[in-house]
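Re: weekly structure request thread

Next one in the queue (472 aa):
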Amino acid sequence: MSELFDIKDLLKSDFESLEKSIFEYVCEAGRNITVYILEELDKYLMLNRDKKRYKSKQNRKTTIKTVYGEVEYSRRMYFDNEEKKYVYLLDEDMQMQKVGTISTNLAKKIADAAIDMSFRNAANNISENTGQSISAHGVWNAVQQIGTVIQAEEDQMLTEMKSEQPRGDIESKVIFQEADGVWLKMQKNKKKVKSQELKLSTVYTGWEKDGDKLHQKKVYAGLETGKKFNEKTEALIQSVYNIDEAELRVVNGDGAAWIKNTYEPDRIFQLDRFHIKKEIRRCIPEKHICADALYKFEHLEIDDMLHVIETYINSIDDGSNSNKIKLANNLFNYLKNNYEGLMPWQIQAGYIPEPPEGVVYKNMGVQENQNCSLVTMRMTGRKMRWSEGGANNIVKLIYMKENGDLDKVIEKHDGAITVPRDLDFKEVLSASKVKSRIGKGNKWLEIINTSVPLLNYPKGAYSKLLRNIQNG
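Done, posted below.
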């Protein structure tokens, strides 16, 4: 170990520098060990292959970006006489054909960082905490590709729904759905353009008794037309919940057309109580009239509430209160146009099924908090502007992570997740450099021989291969 560090140099440095040096050394060791193991596995597969079926053609180099840096290694290409195609036995045996340019672990780290912080900060986070250096553009590129494969999953769910294939496993007598939008500042070709509404929906089956946590929650989000958004939301619902067992579908929202016109028409619509109170307070500045309208609303005297507002409009219609009249008329029309949703969902339903054990049914109104926790803090403010594709792709990662499905989709599709070489990655550790460092009696082989836990397992294809390598 002493040849790795100069003691005199260490005495002149601080612990932070030492820590960075050790981290770089460990990452280098990981890259070397990876190359050594992969190429030795490839040799083993060559010697033990079915020689009649697999005809050896040539060696080809490839690279993989890992959490400890980018590694280049060589593996043999064969012609499969049965399948009549070219194959890499190493790729097939270790499922390397799914790994692509970015390893699964690195893709997950990039996605998690991009969800929580700006692309620039995410790049710094990845570069500081892994052995792989990446630029903000590299993070952006990876996010776009992950978002694209998520949208492919959505399209597949949509196809299954329309062909009546999906049937979710979660059974519930009541399915609650809430929806709302967040307006994003947009840009196109680096120029400001009109803001667009990012749509979000939360679906759940009630509230857990021990707190405010939503039971069996799933979310969906996208920068799409109302029709497409509702179709994809319904596809998600049908892929998760067994809708045949649902006796009630309840939708809560602010009355926007895309929220009311759900894919499933047989539902109860409730106008969001928070939005109603907010609009009454905003549009009626006279405190005593505002309080009267709110009182009647809270006591479910809906027609009396509308009468209070209408009387107020008539009282100020003297030609000198144009702004007040406009606000009050907008309020009256807003409530009148959503008259069906002014009563709570419980009263509209008439009959409410008994909730399952550990679950309660309460008043709805969770979407504002969902918007804030999921996208508002990440995607609005700070002079932030988005391209349409960029906004849509990052929100796909966000909702997938919230649903607990992001890692799964990355594992399934990571062969499609690549980052071009020109995006500030560290210098590739070439096979020639690795071999020159390894040489004869290499220290990395000593590490493999003494400290690879997989060698101790009695069964398994890869542990068997590694033991054969270890034993020569």
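The chain has two domains: 7-101+419-470, 159-411. The first strand starts at residue 54 and ends at 66.
Next request, please.
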